Amino acid sequence: MSGQNQRLNVVPTVTMLGIMKARLVGATRGHALLKKKSDALTVQFRQILKKIVSTKESMGDIMKASSFALTEAKYVAGENIKHIVLENVQSASLKVRSRQENVAGVKLPRFEYFTEGETKNDLTGLARGGQQIQLCRAAYVKAIEVLVELASLQTSFLTLDEAIKTTNRRVNALENVVKPRLENTINYIKGELDELEREDFFRLKKIQGYKKREIEKQLLSARQFAEEQFAEKVSLQKGISINSDHNLLTGAMEKDEDIIF
Length: 261
What we know:
The protein is mainly alpha-helical. It has a domain at about 15-195: Helix Hairpins. About 75% of the residues lie in helices and about 10% in strands. The chain has helices at about 15-75, 80-90, 130-240, 240-260, and strands spanning about 95-105, 105-115. The longest helix is centred in the last third of the chain and has 109 residues, at about 130-240. The radius of gyration is 50 Å and the shape is rod-shaped.
């Protein structure tokens, strides 16, 4: 699911903008680290693949040589060689142990063989075919070494394959879903904050204009009150009422108009 045109449902605030920016920085760093991890795992994967191919190619010759050695031992010592070997063997001399190897945070299993104690069946085939039996034993020891190495490589191959798929899915999710979604959210929050800022500026302008009109009204009312006070003072000094004074002023103005016309 792509996140190119999607965003998170958040409240467009300055605090949320800081949180989204921090998350975007974290997602960018995580994407870079996972990309490096994927590259390192891919390099290791290719090296193991080359080793598997070369080991399988050599395994054919080794298994063929060990089979021929067994056939020669049976021809010389007889068909009952199996019972003779089992009678002389008390415990396994070759054993396999496992350990873990860390590659870019991925634990790869490693198998290795080791020899425990000394071989006590040197007298096997003393009657006849002893030399061929020892050669057969050496051939199969070499085959066991190759099989253990191949098992270790195959297990590491499968583990790395799964780890690379998981890492690539995470890289693609961060690159195509998480980061675009966070970027769209940040752009949305910035747009909403800019719109709120423009609304606040418009609101402040309206409030300023309203206050200016109120001040003008107050000044006009104060001027009218002062004129009325002055007219009342003048009328009191002349001994006439305010209405009479206004009438006299009106009559004088009409006479002036008649003279003009």
